[in-house]
Write a structure and sequence with these properties.
CATH class of the largest domain: Alpha Beta
Order of helices and strands: EHEEHEEEEHEEEEHEEEEHEEEHHHHHH
Number of strands: 18
Bound molecules: flavin-adenine dinucleotide
Strand content: 25-35%
CATH superfamily of the largest domain: FAD/NAD(P)-binding domain
Radius of gyration: 22 Å
Largest sheet: 8 strands, mixed
């Protein structure tokens, strides 16, 4: 599509942002026969990368990409306290993958284009008002008419801002780099003390290398440098340095007249792991379904799109709410409390329970299992425990009595 100055063209759906959420939304809309345009501000897809590339098996499957995107298969995690023995959680079978996020994004966009979506690169969407998307970029100033906009424009979401929608509850900053790493085992390492607001990670990616990084609210660079020193040896090469922001805690409203916000634009990343690809892709599928229905009914007002928010909330809203409560508890714990929690969770029966019920994308089942386990009450007195009490609201009716 070329439009050197002002150009107007009508689409059923304009999707802003060709990350995993946007490409999924565009693919699903095009597959359903809607005329769809996918607009991306960068000249290339999958760049810059702002992700550790850790996806559960379910998240990977939901992306629909080829196994070429997998760099390494992961079977478990080890959680390191500030002192003492770590907590080892190895399922011994594939649970997650380290993926090449750039390749994943490119394959997902290619699938959207194959399904019939039109791709417009190097074009920035500034705002959307009264059915017209105002864009600027390599194609000049384009005004694109769309019955519906699916805003998949990431954490900054210019579309949400142009509509005056409020922001996600917390925005964390992250830094990450690839380093040489001797072990090629498929075990992710988690370091809660690397960042008191979240955690630090080491993810083996095969080929004798690993990604190390952390997310946090403040002093992120300083904390990353300190964390890096733990691993960094002379003659080690630091490559693929990544910085990025992660929105946590969904926006109060994720729809408006003719607009639905998906993925990071809506603040849908998981507060427990920082993963946003799975929920982004799921939300995009719900948004595309609703877009198809609204086009059939020829109704695009906010009340017709409200069902989109209900759909994603029914799907994983409870997980996000619980995740935010867990994050609040985590952020209130002192270093020694974290160490104590790790040492309690090392009890063999609890390890077994974690391995059986643990699910990176849906933590509620694990929390329910742990809360029913007598061993967990050794944590009584910790801030962790007072936090657990609050989870009953979110987990009911699945949960019975809590002492
Ligand atoms: C350090 C870090 C590590 C992470 N690690 C993981 C992980 O291991 N696993 C995981 O699942 N998640 C991880 N995440 C989160 C994950 O990267 C995001 O949740 C995910 O990328 C969200 O996908 P999205 O498509 O919603 O948004 P994005 O991937 O951010 O895509 C948005 C797209 O919109 C484009 N865009 C933005 N504004 C405009 C505009 N106005 N016009 C046109 N185009 C626009 C952008 O260029 C971009 O391509 C991590 C995040 C950070 C910061």
């Amino acid at each position: 599509m070329s439009c050197m100055t002002e150009y107007k063209m009508m689409y059923d759906v304009a999707v802003v942002g060709a990350g995993p959420s946007g490409s999924t939304a565009a693919r699903c809309c095009a597959e359903a026969g809607l005329s769809t345009i996918l607009i991306e501000e960068h000249a290339a897809i999958g760049y810059p990368i702002q992700c550790a590339g850790l996806l559960s098996s379910a998240a990977f499957e939901s992306c629909g990409v080829t196994r070429r995107c997998i760099q390494h298969t992961l079977t478990g995690a080890t959680v390191y306290p500030s002192a003492g023995e770590p907590l080892c959680l190895d399922a011994g079978v594939p649970k997650a993958f380290a993926v090449d996020r750039g390749m994943l994004d490119r394959e997902m966009t290619a699938m959207a284009v194959s399904a019939g979506a039109e791709l417009m690169l190097k074009q920035y969407a500034r705002s959307f008002h009264q059915g017209v998307l105002d864009t600027i970029g390599a194609s000049g100033a384009c005004r694109i008419g769309a019955k519906i906009v699916i805003a998949a424009d990431g954490v900054r979401s210019p579309i949400a801002r142009s509509l005056g929608l409020d922001s996600p509850i917390q925005i964390l900053s992250g830094i990450q780099a690839d380093i040489r790493h001797a072990s090629n085992e498929g075990i992710v390492e988690i370091y809660p003390h690397a960042s008191p607001d979240f955690f630090g990670w080491l993810i083996p990616i095969g080929g004798g290398r690993a990604r190390i990084g952390l997310l946090g609210r403040d002093r992120v660079r300083e904390r990353f440098v300190a964390f890096l020193h733990r691993f960094y040896r002379r003659h080690n090469t630091l490559t693929a340095i990544v910085t990025g922001a992660l929105p946590l805690g969904a926006r109060e409203r994720t729809y408006a007249d003719r607009v639905m916000l998906v993925g990071d634009a809506a603040g849908l990343a998981k507060p427990t792991s920082g993963g946003g690809v799975y929920t982004g892709v799921r939300s995009a599928m719900h948004a595309a379904d609703v877009a198809v229905r609204c086009c059939e009914l020829d109704r695009f007002d906010a009340s017709s799109l409200e069902i989109y928010e209900k759909r994603w909330k029914d799907d994983f809203g409870r997980e996000l709410k619980l995740g935010m409560q867990l994050l609040e508890v985590r952020q209130s714990l002192r270093e020694e409390e974290i160490d104590r929690a790790i040492s309690v969770l090392k009890e063999p029966e609890l390890v077994r329970a974690i391995l059986e019920a643990g699910d990176m994308d849906r933590p509620s089942r694990l929390i329910l299992t742990l809360m029913r386990h007598p061993g967990i009450y050794q944590l009584a007195g910790l801030a962790f425990m007072s936090g657990l009490r609050r989870f009953t609201d979110v987990l009911s009716p699945g949960f019975g009595r809590f002492p």
